[in-house]
Amino acid sequence: HSSMAALLVNRFGLRASGQPTARLLSDLADQLDKIGMQARAVTAERVTTDADTISDYPRFVALFVMLWRGVRQPRAQVIVCLSDPPLVLMVGRLLGFWHRAPVIYWCQDVYPDVLAGLEWPRVMAPLMPLVLGFVRWCHGVLMAGCAARVVPGQCLAKRLEQHRPATAKTPVLVLPNWPEPGLTPQPMPNTADTDHGAPLTVLYSGHYGHGHDLTDLISLAEHVGDQAEQTLHITIALSPRGLARWQSRHGNQPLP
What we know:
Elements: E1 5-9, H1 20-34, E2 38-42, E3 45-47, E4 54-56, H2 59-71, E5 78-81, H3 89-99, E6 103-106, H4 128-144, E7 148-151, H5 154-161, E8 172-174, E9 200-205, H6 215-228, E10 232-237, H7 240-250
Parallel strand pairs: 1-2, 1-5, 5-6, 6-7, 7-8, 9-10
Antiparallel strand pairs: 3-4
Helix pairs in contact: 2-3
């Protein structure tokens, strides 16, 4: 509807930032514009005077920045809230109350579940189950008031269902993420037709965050290579921040 406006809430919104969620937000804004809806982004981005550098505020500061920017926007008829930074849904729900608009939660990652993968100080370890349980309950309360929840896969949908008191009254819709324009998926080759002497190449291009560990990916690739009796090549494409995290855990040891 041409008279409707959507408020898109995420830490990043400019495609030039290079963030995956920024691309999703930009694509959504383009599609909404095509059907006649106004799309306005509420982000925590800061652009320098020469417009060459895009940065953002620290995560918890970003929540207050986004809330302040959101309440200054003209009234919107729907709020679409992504999941960066953690618990940004709290901002989305407050903006939904302010604008008197339903909130759609487009969840790309589940907090605080990913926090369980972090290395916590030993003195904090006994308290973490209680802390994570409480934050998970808060997340469920926030989701319970959403008009809909959208996730990229069934596995994430099942994880969201574990966050009570969110109920089945809030539907969970699966919307797989899409590739960049111009990329065409290729069919899997027939293993019977492949040259068993040719190297097997494993490519990974994605996020390597605090709660992620690529050890399982590498172990699986090695297992596949052993089963296929082929030389294995592993190529990992990481951001500078992801590379720094990789090196902090694995040093400069070469991949198999």
